[in-house]
Amino acid sequence: MTGKLGPDALAEVLAATGADDAAVEVGAAYGEDAAAIDLSGASETLVVAADPLSLAADAVGELAVHVACNDVAASGADPRWLTHTLFLPDADAARRRTVTEQVDATARGLGVAVVGGHTEVLPSLDRPLCSMTALGTTDRFVSSGGAEPGDRLLLTKGAGVEATAILASDFREACAEAGVAAETLDAAAAFLDDVSVVPDAAAVRDAATAMHDPTEGGLLTALVETASASGTELAVERERVPVRPETRACCDALDVDPLATFGSGALLAAVPPKRVDDALDSLADAGIDAAVIGDVRAADERDAGSVRLDGDRIDEAPRDELYPLWE
Fold this sequence. Notes:
Layout: H1 7-14, E1 24-26, E2 35-38, E3 45-53, H2 60-73, E4 78-88, H3 93-110, E5 113-121, E6 129-138, E7 152-156, H4 161-169, H5 172-177, H6 182-189, H7 198-204, E8 210-212, H8 218-230, E9 233-236, H9 245-253, E10 268-271, H10 276-285, E11 290-297, E12 307-309, E13 312-314, H11 323-326
Parallel strand pairs: 4-5, 9-12
Antiparallel strand pairs: 1-2, 2-3, 3-6, 4-6, 7-10, 7-11, 8-10, 9-11, 12-13
Helix pairs in contact: 2-3, 2-7, 4-6, 4-9, 6-9
C-alpha cells in the first residue's frame, strides 16, 4: 500500500533508535517531524528533519526542498543546510537537470545551502525519488507535543494547498474533464509558490506552544499527530478551516476532501489565548492569511490523541485521498 506506515509498523521503526545520546533532546517519535540536538557549549539547538518525495512528478525537486525545510521551520528553527539524496529511474540527462535545477533554485530562494548527498540510477523506480535532510538552528525548539489545554489552534493559508497544485498539474486533464475551468487550473497550479511555511513559522513561533505542518494526509493527519504528541484532544470546526476557491474546485472535481490530502503550505500552530492576537497580527504583517479553527482540550487516557471534527471523533490519521488517483 502506498503511503505512511500504520501505527503498529511505525512503532517498530521508531523503536530502532540506536545508541542512547544525552544530547538528543527530542528524538524519533510519532507526531514529531524533527529532532532536536543540544550543541554542547552553544546557546542554540540543532534541528534535523528528513523527508522523501516521489509522487509529484512535475515538481519533485521543488517540493522536496520545501517539505524538508518546512519541518525544520515548524520546529522554531531557521533552515540553513540540506543534504540531497536523488534516485533516478534512468540516466536521462534532461530529467536529471530538471530535478537538480529545481532543487538549486528552491534552496537559493530560501537561503539554504545544499551541502552534500548522493545521486544514483535505480531502474526499479518509475519516477525520480528525492530524499532531503534539512538542518537548522534555534534558541527555542517548538515541538508538536507542546500544545496545552486552552490553546487556540491557528491555521495559515488554507487546507490542501499542496494538493491543489498537484491536482492542477499531474491531474489537470481529469480536473478539466470534470468541469474545472482552465483559468482556475492555471491559478491552482501556481499554488506551488505557496508551499513554504518558513515565513509562517518565523512569524508565529514566538507565540506558539506547538507547531506542525500538514503534509501527507493533510490537516486531519496533522491534528491527530499533534494530539498524540501532546496527549491532548483537539476540537476543530470544519466551517472555520480556510479552503481556497481553487482548492475547493479541484478537490470537488475529483472527490477529494481538502482536509485529508497533501497540505504543505499551511502551518498548524497552538497558541495561548492571550497571544492569539499577537500571532495573527504578526502573520498579517508578513502578508499571510490565518484563521482560528479550534482549540486544545485536556484529555483522559481514552481521549488523548484524538480529534473532534464537528463533534465526530477521529482516532487515526486518514490515508491521503490523492493516493487512489495515482494507483
